[in-house]
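Sequence of AraC family transcriptional regulator (Paenibacillus piri).
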Amino acid sequence: MVIEMFQFQSEKALSILESFASHPGDDRLQFRVHYWGINPMHYDNHLHKHSFYEICYVIDGSGRYLDDGHWFALEPGTLFCSRPGIWHQIRSDAGMYLLFVAFEPDSAHSDPQALRMYQTLHTTDRFLLHQANHTSTALLWQALMRQLEAPHPLWKETLSPMALALIVSFCSTFRKPDEDMRTIPPIKTDARLLKRACVFIIDNISQPLPLDSIARYLNISGRHLSRLFSEKLGISYIGYVQRERVRHAAELLAYTDISILEAAEKTGFNSVHYFTRVFAKQTGLPPGEYRQLHRSTLDPR
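Predicted 3D structure, token representation.
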């Protein structure tokens, strides 16, 4: 995978990042970015260590990286993580195009459980990855750089979430795959099937929705699908479909000017008479009165 050089002035791009992506975070994790780096010709630095994390991404060129007394080759597509307290150094005779970011979690404003999960990055032994251009970290970093190539009216709204996604991605990129899987709560097959069935029903609410056809779509038996609705939602399949048809029809009557006939057709009822009977049974009002009541509520004039 060959990455074209980014079309921006490095110093200007860094100023934008420092302005809009220095404190990325959400309601679970907050980070302090000490500095962003975009260096098209990075050569050598001194042996040193940090109290924070520094992640580097080699875009072009080659060199060597010293980590805790051991040298590792650097080449295009290499990602590496300098962990807090570890002595490290970069050397390159011809220079490398290097992206880097130095940061630390803001423990005072982060959820303790999320913070503990992220701090496992501190002890990882998977701190250098070759041929990493295909990883989520590399792709997110490239996307972040592309955003800096042209003026953007919503830089704050764009760059901060992208920076957060990039920094959070480091945790999974530099951990062993089996460690990642242990942190993901398993989603039961039945729950996944039921969710797909519900989404299909809502997306196709104007169509006939016989149980057997949905079951075939999900590659399960009709009996299995029926059991999922009764056991997981406490309602029959037919009852759920009817409830969703009425719910959608109620929204159409309250918020649009379409006729009652159109509302019935758009929600899969094959006759106005049947629609009126089912709607009144579930809402307590026939469609016309329901529309009048909700229109007067929305517009008291």
